[in-house]
Known about the structure:
Elements: E1 9-12, H1 14-18, H2 27-38, E2 42-46, H3 51-61, E3 66-69, E4 74-77, E5 82-86, H4 91-105, E6 109-114, E7 121-123, E8 136-137, H5 141-144, E9 149-155, H6 161-172, E10 177-182, E11 185-189, H7 195-205, E12 213-217, H8 223-228, E13 231-234, H9 240-245, E14 248-249, H10 257-265
Parallel strand pairs: 1-2, 1-12, 2-3, 7-8, 12-13, 13-14
Antiparallel strand pairs: 3-4, 4-5, 6-7, 6-9, 9-11, 10-11
Helix pairs in contact: 2-10, 4-6
Amino acid sequence: MSAGFLFRLIATDLDGTLLRSDESISRRTRDALAAATAAGAAHIVVTGRAVPWTRHILDDLGYDGLAVCGQGAQVYDAGAHRLLTSVTLDRQLAGVALAKLEAEVGPLYLAASRDGLDGEVLVGPGYAVTGNLPATPFTDAADLWSAPLNKVYIQHPTLGDDELADVARRVAGGFVTVAMAGAGIVELLPLGLSKATGLSLAARRLGLKAADTIAFGDMPNDIPMFAWAAHGVAMANAHEELRAVADEVTTSNEEDGIAAVLERLLP
Protein backbone atom coordinates (compact mmCIF):
# COMPACT_ATOMS: atom_id res chain seq x y z
CA MET A 1 0.00 0.00 0.00
CA SER A 2 1.43 3.34 -1.04
CA ALA A 3 1.77 5.91 1.72
CA GLY A 4 -1.02 8.43 1.80
CA PHE A 5 -3.87 6.34 0.40
CA LEU A 6 -6.37 6.02 3.23
CA PHE A 7 -8.72 3.28 2.03
CA ARG A 8 -8.08 -0.35 1.17
CA LEU A 9 -11.56 -0.88 -0.29
CA ILE A 10 -13.48 1.28 -2.78
CA ALA A 11 -17.17 0.41 -3.08
CA THR A 12 -19.01 2.00 -5.99
CA ASP A 13 -22.64 1.93 -7.01
CA LEU A 14 -23.20 1.66 -10.78
CA ASP A 15 -26.16 3.65 -12.10
CA GLY A 16 -25.90 7.37 -11.44
CA THR A 17 -22.50 6.86 -9.80
CA LEU A 18 -19.84 4.91 -11.71
CA LEU A 19 -21.83 4.91 -14.95
CA ARG A 20 -22.67 7.99 -16.98
CA SER A 21 -26.22 8.27 -18.34
CA ASP A 22 -25.24 6.36 -21.52
CA GLU A 23 -23.96 3.47 -19.30
CA SER A 24 -20.32 4.23 -20.16
CA ILE A 25 -17.45 4.79 -17.72
CA SER A 26 -15.13 7.69 -18.50
CA ARG A 27 -11.45 7.19 -19.23
CA ARG A 28 -10.60 9.49 -16.31
CA THR A 29 -12.64 7.36 -13.87
CA ARG A 30 -11.15 4.12 -15.24
CA ASP A 31 -7.65 5.57 -14.80
CA ALA A 32 -8.35 6.75 -11.25
CA LEU A 33 -9.68 3.33 -10.24
CA ALA A 34 -6.67 1.65 -11.90
CA ALA A 35 -4.30 3.94 -9.98
CA ALA A 36 -6.10 3.20 -6.70
CA THR A 37 -5.95 -0.56 -7.26
CA ALA A 38 -2.28 -0.25 -8.26
CA ALA A 39 -1.77 1.50 -4.89
CA GLY A 40 -3.19 -1.60 -3.17
CA ALA A 41 -6.92 -0.87 -2.87
CA ALA A 42 -9.61 -3.33 -3.93
CA HIS A 43 -12.62 -2.14 -5.95
CA ILE A 44 -16.03 -3.72 -5.42
CA VAL A 45 -19.04 -2.79 -7.55
CA VAL A 46 -22.18 -2.69 -5.37
CA THR A 47 -25.35 -2.42 -7.43
CA GLY A 48 -29.06 -2.90 -7.16
CA ARG A 49 -28.98 -4.67 -10.52
CA ALA A 50 -29.08 -8.45 -10.42
CA VAL A 51 -26.17 -10.31 -12.07
CA PRO A 52 -27.82 -10.73 -15.52
CA TRP A 53 -28.26 -6.94 -15.77
CA THR A 54 -24.73 -6.25 -14.45
CA ARG A 55 -22.50 -8.81 -16.16
CA HIS A 56 -22.15 -7.03 -19.54
CA ILE A 57 -21.01 -3.82 -17.82
CA LEU A 58 -18.40 -5.64 -15.74
CA ASP A 59 -17.14 -7.54 -18.80
CA ASP A 60 -16.82 -4.28 -20.74
CA LEU A 61 -14.87 -2.74 -17.86
CA GLY A 62 -12.52 -5.74 -17.81
CA TYR A 63 -13.59 -6.13 -14.17
CA ASP A 64 -12.59 -9.49 -12.66
CA GLY A 65 -13.13 -8.87 -8.94
CA LEU A 66 -16.12 -9.42 -6.69
CA ALA A 67 -19.38 -7.59 -7.33
CA VAL A 68 -22.33 -7.22 -4.98
CA CYS A 69 -25.51 -7.40 -7.07
CA GLY A 70 -29.25 -7.48 -6.51
CA GLN A 71 -29.23 -4.92 -3.67
CA GLY A 72 -26.89 -7.14 -1.62
CA ALA A 73 -28.58 -10.45 -2.45
CA GLN A 74 -25.80 -11.75 -4.71
CA VAL A 75 -22.01 -11.85 -4.36
CA TYR A 76 -20.64 -12.50 -7.84
CA ASP A 77 -17.09 -13.43 -8.91
CA ALA A 78 -16.85 -11.51 -12.18
CA GLY A 79 -13.56 -13.09 -13.24
CA ALA A 80 -14.90 -16.63 -12.84
CA HIS A 81 -18.48 -15.72 -13.91
CA ARG A 82 -19.65 -17.50 -10.78
CA LEU A 83 -22.32 -16.73 -8.19
CA LEU A 84 -20.77 -17.13 -4.71
CA THR A 85 -23.79 -16.32 -2.55
CA SER A 86 -27.44 -15.67 -3.27
CA VAL A 87 -30.32 -14.69 -0.97
CA THR A 88 -33.86 -15.27 -2.20
CA LEU A 89 -37.11 -13.57 -1.32
CA ASP A 90 -39.64 -15.49 0.79
CA ARG A 91 -42.41 -15.57 -1.81
CA GLN A 92 -45.13 -16.11 0.78
CA LEU A 93 -44.06 -13.04 2.77
CA ALA A 94 -43.75 -11.04 -0.45
CA GLY A 95 -47.28 -12.03 -1.41
CA VAL A 96 -48.58 -10.86 1.97
CA ALA A 97 -46.63 -7.59 1.62
CA LEU A 98 -48.11 -6.96 -1.84
CA ALA A 99 -51.64 -7.75 -0.66
CA LYS A 100 -51.32 -5.29 2.25
CA LEU A 101 -49.86 -2.63 -0.04
CA GLU A 102 -52.55 -3.02 -2.72
CA ALA A 103 -55.24 -2.87 -0.04
CA GLU A 104 -53.79 0.53 0.87
CA VAL A 105 -53.03 2.09 -2.54
CA GLY A 106 -54.88 -0.02 -5.13
CA PRO A 107 -53.42 -2.18 -7.94
CA LEU A 108 -49.68 -2.02 -8.60
CA TYR A 109 -47.63 -2.63 -11.73
CA LEU A 110 -45.21 -5.49 -11.01
CA ALA A 111 -41.92 -6.93 -12.16
CA ALA A 112 -39.59 -9.45 -10.53
CA SER A 113 -36.01 -10.65 -10.76
CA ARG A 114 -35.54 -14.42 -10.78
CA ASP A 115 -32.65 -15.91 -8.88
CA GLY A 116 -29.50 -17.21 -10.54
CA LEU A 117 -26.74 -16.28 -12.97
CA ASP A 118 -29.21 -16.13 -15.85
CA GLY A 119 -32.34 -15.24 -13.90
CA GLU A 120 -34.87 -13.46 -16.08
CA VAL A 121 -36.54 -10.20 -15.15
CA LEU A 122 -40.29 -10.76 -15.51
CA VAL A 123 -42.35 -7.68 -16.34
CA GLY A 124 -46.11 -7.44 -15.93
CA PRO A 125 -48.66 -5.27 -17.74
CA GLY A 126 -48.12 -1.54 -17.18
CA TYR A 127 -44.67 -1.84 -15.61
CA ALA A 128 -42.19 0.53 -17.32
CA VAL A 129 -38.62 -0.81 -17.57
CA THR A 130 -35.96 1.91 -17.61
CA GLY A 131 -33.36 1.69 -20.38
CA ASN A 132 -32.90 -1.16 -22.84
CA LEU A 133 -32.45 -4.01 -20.39
CA PRO A 134 -33.70 -7.48 -21.37
CA ALA A 135 -37.02 -8.46 -19.79
CA THR A 136 -39.63 -11.20 -20.24
CA PRO A 137 -43.29 -10.13 -20.23
CA PHE A 138 -45.85 -12.03 -18.13
CA THR A 139 -49.62 -11.73 -17.89
CA ASP A 140 -50.50 -14.54 -15.46
CA ALA A 141 -49.58 -13.56 -11.88
CA ALA A 142 -48.89 -17.23 -11.12
CA ASP A 143 -45.83 -17.02 -13.41
CA LEU A 144 -44.38 -14.38 -11.11
CA TRP A 145 -44.23 -16.79 -8.18
CA SER A 146 -43.33 -20.01 -10.03
CA ALA A 147 -39.55 -19.91 -9.37
CA PRO A 148 -37.21 -18.40 -6.72
CA LEU A 149 -36.89 -14.60 -6.81
CA ASN A 150 -34.35 -12.08 -5.52
CA LYS A 151 -36.76 -9.14 -5.56
CA VAL A 152 -40.10 -7.75 -6.71
CA TYR A 153 -40.29 -4.33 -8.38
CA ILE A 154 -43.37 -2.16 -7.86
CA GLN A 155 -44.78 0.89 -9.65
CA HIS A 156 -48.05 2.77 -9.11
CA PRO A 157 -50.19 4.57 -11.69
CA THR A 158 -50.20 7.87 -9.77
CA LEU A 159 -47.91 7.75 -6.70
CA GLY A 160 -44.33 8.98 -7.07
CA ASP A 161 -41.35 6.84 -6.08
CA ASP A 162 -40.73 8.45 -2.69
CA GLU A 163 -44.41 8.32 -1.75
CA LEU A 164 -44.78 4.70 -2.88
CA ALA A 165 -41.64 3.65 -0.97
CA ASP A 166 -42.87 5.44 2.17
CA VAL A 167 -46.28 3.73 2.06
CA ALA A 168 -44.66 0.35 1.36
CA ARG A 169 -42.35 0.70 4.37
CA ARG A 170 -45.27 1.67 6.60
CA VAL A 171 -47.66 -1.16 5.63
CA ALA A 172 -45.28 -3.94 4.52
CA GLY A 173 -42.00 -3.17 6.30
CA GLY A 174 -42.47 -6.07 8.72
CA PHE A 175 -42.46 -8.58 5.85
CA VAL A 176 -39.94 -7.22 3.33
CA THR A 177 -37.22 -4.59 3.04
CA VAL A 178 -38.26 -1.70 0.79
CA ALA A 179 -35.55 -0.02 -1.28
CA MET A 180 -35.71 2.98 -3.60
CA ALA A 181 -32.95 2.50 -6.16
CA GLY A 182 -33.65 5.03 -8.90
CA ALA A 183 -36.35 6.69 -10.96
CA GLY A 184 -39.26 4.25 -11.19
CA ILE A 185 -37.38 1.60 -9.20
CA VAL A 186 -39.01 0.74 -5.86
CA GLU A 187 -38.16 -2.79 -4.74
CA LEU A 188 -39.35 -5.38 -2.23
CA LEU A 189 -36.38 -7.39 -0.94
CA PRO A 190 -35.75 -10.17 1.59
CA LEU A 191 -36.30 -8.76 5.09
CA GLY A 192 -33.09 -7.31 6.51
CA LEU A 193 -31.22 -7.32 3.20
CA SER A 194 -29.27 -4.26 2.05
CA LYS A 195 -26.18 -3.33 0.06
CA ALA A 196 -24.33 -3.30 3.39
CA THR A 197 -25.18 -6.99 3.93
CA GLY A 198 -23.64 -8.04 0.62
CA LEU A 199 -20.71 -5.64 0.84
CA SER A 200 -19.72 -6.93 4.29
CA LEU A 201 -19.75 -10.51 2.94
CA ALA A 202 -17.63 -9.57 -0.08
CA ALA A 203 -15.22 -7.52 2.03
CA ARG A 204 -14.78 -10.41 4.46
CA ARG A 205 -13.74 -12.64 1.55
CA LEU A 206 -10.97 -10.11 0.81
CA GLY A 207 -9.93 -9.80 4.45
CA LEU A 208 -11.18 -6.19 4.58
CA LYS A 209 -13.44 -4.34 7.01
CA ALA A 210 -15.82 -1.39 7.16
CA ALA A 211 -13.01 0.77 8.55
CA ASP A 212 -11.06 0.18 5.31
CA THR A 213 -13.89 1.32 3.05
CA ILE A 214 -14.85 4.41 1.05
CA ALA A 215 -18.25 4.11 -0.64
CA PHE A 216 -19.78 6.09 -3.53
CA GLY A 217 -23.51 6.26 -4.33
CA ASP A 218 -26.48 8.34 -5.43
CA MET A 219 -29.77 6.86 -4.15
CA PRO A 220 -31.50 5.99 -0.84
CA ASN A 221 -30.63 2.30 -1.34
CA ASP A 222 -26.99 3.37 -0.75
CA ILE A 223 -27.75 4.66 2.77
CA PRO A 224 -27.00 1.31 4.51
CA MET A 225 -23.70 1.06 2.58
CA PHE A 226 -22.75 4.58 3.73
CA ALA A 227 -23.67 3.65 7.32
CA TRP A 228 -21.39 0.60 7.08
CA ALA A 229 -18.40 2.22 5.36
CA ALA A 230 -15.87 4.49 7.04
CA HIS A 231 -16.52 7.27 4.49
CA GLY A 232 -19.57 7.82 2.25
CA VAL A 233 -19.39 10.03 -0.84
CA ALA A 234 -22.61 11.15 -2.54
CA MET A 235 -22.61 12.27 -6.15
CA ALA A 236 -23.80 15.82 -6.93
CA ASN A 237 -26.81 14.21 -8.64
CA ALA A 238 -27.67 12.15 -5.52
CA HIS A 239 -31.08 11.92 -3.87
CA GLU A 240 -31.44 14.37 -0.97
CA GLU A 241 -31.84 11.51 1.55
CA LEU A 242 -28.39 10.17 0.66
CA ARG A 243 -26.76 13.60 0.53
CA ALA A 244 -28.05 14.19 4.08
CA VAL A 245 -26.04 11.26 5.48
CA ALA A 246 -22.94 11.53 3.25
CA ASP A 247 -19.53 12.49 4.63
CA GLU A 248 -18.94 14.53 1.47
CA VAL A 249 -20.55 15.36 -1.87
CA THR A 250 -18.48 15.14 -5.05
CA THR A 251 -19.26 16.21 -8.62
CA SER A 252 -21.87 14.32 -10.63
CA ASN A 253 -21.56 10.96 -12.37
CA GLU A 254 -21.35 12.87 -15.68
CA GLU A 255 -18.44 14.93 -14.30
CA ASP A 256 -16.16 12.14 -13.04
CA GLY A 257 -17.19 12.50 -9.40
CA ILE A 258 -15.48 9.27 -8.32
CA ALA A 259 -12.24 10.22 -10.07
CA ALA A 260 -12.25 13.68 -8.46
CA VAL A 261 -12.20 12.11 -4.98
CA LEU A 262 -9.76 9.29 -5.75
CA GLU A 263 -7.29 11.69 -7.42
CA ARG A 264 -7.34 13.83 -4.29
CA LEU A 265 -6.70 10.82 -2.05
CA LEU A 266 -4.01 9.20 -4.17
CA PRO A 267 -0.42 10.17 -3.32
